[in-house]
Amino acid sequence: MVSGRSDGRRLPTAVKIVIAGGFGVGKTTMVGTVSETRPLRTEEILTDESIGVDDVSGVEKKKTTTVAMDFGRITMQEEYVLYLFGTPGQERFWFMWDEVALGALGAVVLADTRRLSDCFPSVDYFERRGTPFVVAVNCFEGAQQFDLTEIQMALNLGPDVPVMLCDARSLASCKKVLIDLVLHAMKTRGLVPETQKA
Amino acid sequence: MMPPEDPAQWPERPQQEYPPERLLDEHVGPMVRPYVMTSGRIEPTRGRFDLITLVVAAGPEPDTAIGLGPEHLAIVRLCQSVTSVAELTGLLDLPVATVRVLLGDLLDKGFITMQEPEPEADMHDIRLYKAVIDGLRAL
């Protein structure tokens, strides 16, 4: 086992939060809004073997596919570093989701009321996996203000899953979503938050 | 063992599988392929290297004489401060699998140390949640 020490100094522990949701819903925007550094992109090259379960008709010549994920970093005091990962846009890269969701503190499912069904797979995934998550409705300009209870019902969410409005471009709004997520994750894991004010 | 006196018994030279002109094809382009950097290896010799495994340079300054490529040295340079595997792949613009193999080499040779993330089962440390909330509030 490799010790996490360098020159007797303990390395910080990394924590991650996953930002999921349909294509174009604002995942990368949210990552960029809260990240202390320029968001980076990590790429995984897939071979035909790993995407064998997909329908590749019409792309027979294609030998590899690249899956990209955007992510950002927030340093928390000395001890922890928080990473925010935007999930790969296409749902077919589930195995990448597994890698990203493994060990995640929790997940934010971003939703767009104009295409609410786009976030069904994300909700379904985190429900099945048991990852604590919140649903944040990204309020695009011109998007109608929806009743959050209606959205909760439309997504068939349990009463415990927090649903909130947000603006992925606003730091204050993203902060609130993430703090609410952490409080929710604490509650889900049986750790009662000290203060409920968020 | 090879009998040196009798050339007839020497094993046949391995067939050259790829004629050199094929490798010098103009369509190959200037990019060094990721599998060349890892000598064809797809798994690191040591370490698991999650995307958020943190890595920091340790020990002596490496030099090229010990079988490290420019990508290895670039990683050590980036790891002067604590850096995650994901950040390394983003900064070097290399695939995750490639960076994992290179990190395995560096770990093996003692040029880096690493800190694996908390497994999900250990997500019950209330200090972690408090630190994250405080950090988010401070943004």
**Low-confidence blocks of residues of chain A:** 1-6, 50-56
Shape of chain A: globular
Number of strands of chain B: 3
- Helix percent of chain B reads 25-40%
The DSSP helix count of chain A reads: 5
Percent range for β-strand residues of chain A? 25-35%
Number of domains of chain B: 1
The SS-based structural class of chain A is alpha/beta
Please describe the biggest sheet of chain B, giving its number of strands, its sense, and whether it closes into a barrel: 3 strands, antiparallel
| Largest sheet, spatial ordering of strands of chain B | 2-1-3
Distance between the termini of chain B: 69 Å
Count of helical segments of chain B? 6
What's the overall average pLDDT of chain B, rounded?
A: 80
Q: Kindly state the mean pLDDT of chain A as a whole number?
A: 82
Rg value of chain A: 18 Å
Oligomeric status:
heterodimer
Helix content class of chain A: 25-40%
Largest sheet of chain A: 7 strands, mixed
